[in-house]
Fold these 3 entries.
Entry 1:
Amino acid sequence: MTWIAPDVERSEHYPERRNEPEPAMLRDWLDWHRATLLRKCAGLDAAQLATRAVPPSNLSLLGLVRHMSDTERGWVRQAFRGEQVPDLYYRSDAPDTDFEEAGAAGAEEDFDRYRAECRAVDAALAGAELDETFILRERTISVRWMWQHLVEEYARHNGHADLIRQVIDGSAGL
């Protein structure tokens, strides 16, 4: 039996909380964009997820899932919290392995790893104050900036996911 990316619930509209404290709104946006990426993948089999549908780009939906796993881990757990956890896919000698090595055979495991990483990042963000700072590459970065950057990273890549999905099966605006 072929593995199919599961469906995911997500509001049809942007997050509803619009006049709440900033951490709640940032959490909503991050969750909404995570769900959007997974919705772009829902219903596709592993081979479709690994398809690089927009040549000459090396992007695939599976590659985007892998990339966002490493992105969240890198910013939140490694840089902000200082956890000594290895990169999931990134290698300095081959920085595009999240995309280049995204193969159908590992799709289900990559999705499980992504969801586990989201849970770990949520735990690492629990109790974080937006004005807290950390140093990365000799720059002082606030949690607020980091969180906004994660939302921006998802927004950009969800645009890529729109194009990839449309080429694969004609679906748009999921």
Entry 2:
Amino acid sequence: MWILVLGLVLFFGMHSARMALPSLREAQLSANEKRWKGLYAGVSFAGLLLIILAWWVGQGDNVALYTPPDWGRHVTMLLVWVAFILLASANMPAGRIKQWVKHPMVVGVALWGLGHLLANGDLFGTLTFGAFFLYGVINRIAVIGRGDPAPVVVRPRSDLIAIVAGTVLYAIFVFALHQWLFGVSPLAAR
């Protein structure tokens, strides 16, 4: 359990630097941008590896906290599909999706976490997916406080590409990668 908690603290601690310690982050970027980005990537990656390791080795410590609703798996499938589309749109020139959502990656992470909370009721799942959901919500609130303007649409075709790319990646993940990576098929009835 401690491995999971340490991984979550490292991963989200680093990802929260802009929200929690903006002046420190700016000072580090100004002093040596490459060093800061290297540290950011290294600590984040170490946290992610610890989260994955905890899931692999710690399932014996895992306990059920709640019973997910019967409809939770179906809602999860929809929310995760939308999250994949939002993640795809975050990495493209601004289209209407990016203009409307402003920060599609943050919203996608929150939807992904929320969906998984509806489908998993165990301790590891609640901690992991709850952390992603809370991070997404808190980060979105912080972004609103910064007053970032909505991106200007530069390529409306980006929306179509994001929908297609997000849907294809979602299908690959649902039909193959999720089972292979995590040992659970999202399509299997529980």
Entry 3:
Amino acid sequence: MEFLKKNVGVLLICISVIVTGMVLGRSYLSKGKADPKIKVVGMGEESFDSDLIVWNASFSRNDYELKSAYTSLNQDLKALKNYLKTKGVAEKDIIIEAANIEKQYSYNYDDQGNLVSTNFNGYSITQNIKVQSKNVDLVDRVSRQVSELINAGIELNSQAPEYYYTKMADLKLKMIEKATSDARKRAEKIAENGGGSLGNLQQADMGVFQITAENSSEDYAWGGSFNTSSRRKTAHITIRLEYEVN
């Protein structure tokens, strides 16, 4: 006991040396050997129908008198709104946008290409109208029947409808859940086949959402794609997970 009291400092130093040696030895033996990890990519995919349609159209009137052009334009607008209502389109879904006024000119040039005279050809007023509705079937059908307006003397410039989905936030959560579950299943199978078991999740990275037409060959975009031309769409998302292996 007296010996221990006199040499306690030396004994502590010896113990420290032994422990340090063991730690350094293990560090040396494992040097260059990476901790086993599994990296996997999971895919989430879901097809859905658009629940919102946006249809844009425009028509114009030309006249030398601005007031007369406006009068004709307003008559056309009234006829168009009545037409849409008779087809079942709700008035609240009809959005009248600002009219665009443009002066029309013609130009005369001589043989050398110099401007000789300028003639004023009147005013052109263009009215833009938008129909935005959750009644996708109805508006989709009406947008394909607007040639009937020709009989009313209205030359409507109709654009192709655009289709949207208003529950995108919920859809994204569902897709992330699917992709994460898919990735974990892959990682578990890899670990099992390798004789180990899945450890803690170390890292997770989410890719961008890609929304394309269903059953199409559309290319994915680097920042994510969002198809608006097709009513039926498919959403895609990838999740990259990294796990420890026990």
